[in-house]
Amino acid sequence: MQNVLHTPIEYLKGVGPNRGETLRKELGIHTYMDLINFFPNRHIDKTRFYKINELQRNSSDVQLVGKIVHFKTVEQKRGKRLVADFIDETGRMELVWFRGHKWVRENLKLNVPYVIFGKTNWFNGVFSMPHPEMELLADYKKNLRTAMQPVYPSTELLQKKGITNRAIMKLIQEVMKQSGLRFGETLNQEIVQELNLISKSEAIFNVHFPKNQELLAKAQFRLKFEELFFIQLQLIRKNLLHKRKIKGLIFEEIGENFNRFYKEHLPFELTGAQKRVIKEIRSDLGSGAQMNRLLQGDVGSGKTIVALMSMFMALDNGFQACLMAPTEILSVQHYNGLSELCKELNTSIYLLTGSTKTSDRKEIHEKLENGEIDILIGTHALLEDKVKFQNLGLAIIDEQHRFGVAQRAKLWKKNSIPPHILVMTATPIPRTLAMSLYGDLDISVIDELPPGRKPIKTVHRFDSNRLKVFRFIKEEIMKGRQVYIVYPLIQESEKMDYKDLMDGYESIAREFPDYQISIVHGQMKPADKDYEMDRFLRKETQIMVATTVIEVGVNVPNASVMIIESAERFGLSQLHQLRGRVGRGAEQSYCILMTGHKLSEDSKTRLQTMTSNNDGFQIAEVDLKLRGPGDLMGTQQSGVLNLKIADIVKDNSILSTARWYASKILKEDPDLSDEKNRHIRNAFARLMKDRTIWNYIS
Ligand code: ADP
Ligand code: MG
Fold first, then answer.
1. Which pLDDT score, from 0 to 100, does residue 514 have?
2. Which residues contact 613 (CB under 8 A, 6 or more apart)?
3. What CATH number corresponds to the domain at position 66?
4. Hey, which of 261, 262, 268 would you mutate to test ligand 1's pocket, going by the most ligand atoms within 8 Å of its Cβ?
5. Which of 176, 276, 350, 396 is most enclosed, with most CB atoms within 10 A?
6. Which of 377, 409, 425 is the last residue of a domain?
7. Is the distance from the beta carbon of residue 268 to the nearest atom of ligand 1 less than 6 Å?
8. Listed residues: CB within 5 A of ion ligand 2
9. Three-state DSSP class for 26?
10. How far is CA 124 from CA 79, 94, 121, 127, in A?
11. Does 555 contact ligand 1 (Cβ within 6 A)?
């Protein structure tokens, strides 16, 4: 059976070299097996036959039995149309062709029963069906078929080459005939029984040609489960092997730094979620395996303090730690914030960024190597080869989505035994997606905001209401608050955006002559940016006009208003990030989304989601649905999502189930050597050998 299914596609009856080439190029179908695994998008329910006198105006997908009794050609303005009179025992209708007349006349027979299928129109009391699908009733009865007709994905080229939906169906039926559809079991008995799965062969048959909706659903469930199960199995296994192979530094001590800070200098009570995550990290650090953990927490959930306390664990065991942030501004802010928190402890904290002076840089390099620096904070500059630690025990990356896997790997090499790695992100990725994308990372979630936060009030205002918005800004500033006004900055139109920003700045300056205004954008020198940020932080300026450079992490608790200009041009996650810059203090905060009147449906959904929702995870789910997972994560990771049948968004409960079973099985039987898991072992080995799984996981 294996052999038949591995036959190159051109050898299949009805394919040949020409069509074979097209199938390979257009659909990636190389073998019989690929064809069997080419799944329909949907099914047309053909359980029902209509009579002509039952037809409704403009119905699609109707199926009838009847005969052609007469052809005629009708001249019309452009070209001709061929019309056939079609009758059944209840009435008469017309079949219409606008092209292919010759073929129709030569091939379709008069007075013989046909099964026809298509969409109907109604005009002047007569129903017509343009370009119907037709099959002789006799053939219809002979063919292997079910009532639910599969509809396969198609392309223009396929249509042009005559590889129609019907042709694909026939080819698949041919493969099924030849192979006998004897697929071996791929899962274990426990899963099959507990999930009440139909057999693999039944599933394959019914996913193409189900008898009814129920069987289709069962077939799809089994195949989706299987697809997700083996991906999860691979991801979790990789993680386990990694833990077994990569020895980690063991931090057993909870010592001086951690305890003193916790008892004497912690500025607030930790939330339950923060405590839980710190425990998870502590247990990783003591486990003997290298930690690779992703910490997700909405903006303002308090990830920084978790980072600091984790770094203390490294320090207390005689190791150094580093914290890398994606921007200069953010690094400086972390440096200032953490230095402040540690001022009563004798922790030595340094900052290294692209704009660190050469002389300071030299000093830092030396002190890192002789161990005088405990914590190094900075940008990408930390990754440079010249930056060598005496003994780096923990590396933390803030805002993971700005960094790639390559950077993580570079940090690994900063110590002879790789340091523990903690990546933090405030771009909440729906948990299910995170599981697939970062399957090799363990995940912690801070799902609780510090107490006393007032939810940010978010409204949508049209540009025409700008004066009211300005009045509101004035009121807030009079109360002592500060205001952000953010303009889009999209790479492709950088010049135009820059102009918008400058125009905006000027009009704000005109409108608010009594206030000081800061401006920050990507084309400024880092030192100038910092200077402006700093003025805003020190409350010397009341309004900050900026592009999205302030998106990530910046913390000015006194700022209570976020105005986002051209809000329709931002993605949901980005809007949520920007909004997270306010609502950091005790005051009521506001986010105002400004747009013009012309809005696409997607923009409306985004705006509406923002005004009705404050939860980053829920927003991320909507974003995922709007944009699709590839876009959300950037192209580099979208390879993970080339699923054949499952949909990472819609099928996330199947994904959770699959992950649960994969993890359970590997816990009990890490090498899949148990006899009861032999089907899984074999199927997995086959997938690995065919490298099927590597299409998902790069
Ligand atoms: P993020 O997760 O976005 O990085 P931060 O770590 O910057 O969040 O924290 C946001 C703000 O909340 C900071 O001002 C921080 O001091 C404060 N904060 C963090 N944890 C708590 C807590 N448990 N109780 C009160 N305030 C907290
Ligand atoms: Mg942060």
1. 92
2. 619, 622
3. 2.40.50.140
4. 268
5. 396
6. 425
7. yes
8. 553
9. helix
10. 22, 12, 10, 8
11. yes
d(CA 304, CA 308): 6
Ligand 1, atom nearest to 446 Cα: 2
Q: Which ligand is nearest to the CA of 453?
A: 1
CA geometry: angle 613, 615, 621, nearest 5 deg: 90
396 lines ligand 1 (CB under 6 A): no
Ligand 1 pocket residue status of 218, Cβ below 6 Å: no
Question: Mean pLDDT over residues 552-575, rounded?
Answer: 87
Please provide the distance, in angstroms rounded to a whole number, between the alpha carbons at the two ends of the chain.
30
DSSP H stretches of helix in 421-559: 431-437, 466-478, 494-511, 526-537
Cβ of residue 22 lying under 6 Å from some atom of ligand 1: no
The pLDDT value given to residue 692: 55
Pocket of ligand 1 contains residue 300 by CB under 6 Å: yes
Residue where one domain finishes, among candidates 103, 128, 144: 144
Ligand 1 binding pocket includes 303 (Cβ within 6 Å): yes
pLDDT of residue 682 exceeding 50: yes
492 Cα–ligand 2 center, Å: 28
Which pLDDT score, from 0 to 100, does residue 439 have? 64
* pTM summary value: 0.68
425: CA distance to ligand 2 center in Å?
8
Residue 628 lies in a domain: no
User: Which ligand is closest to the CA of 446, given by its number?
Assistant: 1
Q: Is the pLDDT of residue 203 over 80?
A: yes
Per DSSP, 407 falls in state H
Q: Which of 527, 526, 510, 508 is nearest to 518 (CA)?
A: 508
Dist CA 134 CA 19 (whole Å) = 23
**Contact between 19 and 164 (Cβ < 8 Å):** no
Domain span including residue 52: 47-144
Q: Tokens 């062969």 identify what position?
A: 201
Residue 604: inside a domain, yes or no?
yes
Is the distance from the beta carbon of residue 302 to the nearest atom of ligand 1 less than 6 Å? Answer: yes
One domain for residues 273 and 409:
yes
Q: Is the CB of 270 under 6 A from ligand 1?
A: yes
- How far, in Å, are 35, 199, 205, 210, 559 from residue 43 at the CA level? 17, 21, 14, 9, 54
pLDDT value of position 431 = 66
Clarify whether residues 493 and 399 are in a common domain.
no
**pLDDT value at residue 475:** 95
The reply to whether 538 falls in a domain is yes
What the block records as the tokens of 181 is 């559809």
Ligand nearest to the Cα of 271, by number: 1
Confidence of residue 12 (pLDDT cuts 50, 70, 90): very high
